[in-house]
Amino acid sequence: MTNRLDQETSAYLLQHQENPVDWWPWSDEAFDEARRRDVPVFLSIGYSACHWCHVMAHESFEDDAPAAYLNEHYVSIKVDREERPDVDAIYMDATIAMTGHGGWPMSVFLDLEARPFYAGTYFPPEPRH
Question: Which has the closest alpha carbon to 88: 61, 108, 71, 74?
């Protein structure tokens, strides 16, 4: 099963085309879908050489249970920071403002107007404290 990333040119996005998460590329259509469904957006920003991006992908985005939760409750957008440094910069500033630090993978929850309301970096599938 492929998602909406299968037509992208970014190597990083293509690495996620077979995830059970119904990923959308950054686009007006993704936000239109979120408004149509009246759900927030989960934005995941990373890049191909990012170790923790691959860890989070394996632990969460390739797993059916977290993917089903994301698919039901969010429109999920995947961004390659090397392809969209403009999007990366905006949400990195927001992540740092909210948490005091930034990094990748960057995980940002957005309202229907693309305004962040929660942000972080790597989120493990289970608390590790």
Answer: 108
User: Rounded to an integer, what distance in angstroms lies between the CA atom of residue 86 and that of residue 72?
Assistant: 28
The amino acid present at 92, given as its one-letter code, is M
- 45-90 pLDDT, tens per residue? 999 999 999 999 999 999 999 999 999 999 999 999 999 999 999 9
Pick from 67, 20, 127: nearest CA to 4:
20
CA 57/CA 123 separation, integer angstroms: 10
Report all structural domains of the chain as residue ranges with CATH numbers, in order of start: 11-120 (3.40.30.10)
- Rounded distance between C-alpha atoms, residue 42 and residue 65, angstroms: 16
How does DSSP assign 2-42, residue by residue? --TTTT---HHHHTTTTSSS-EEESSHHHHHHHHHHT--EE
- Summary mean pLDDT of the chain: 96
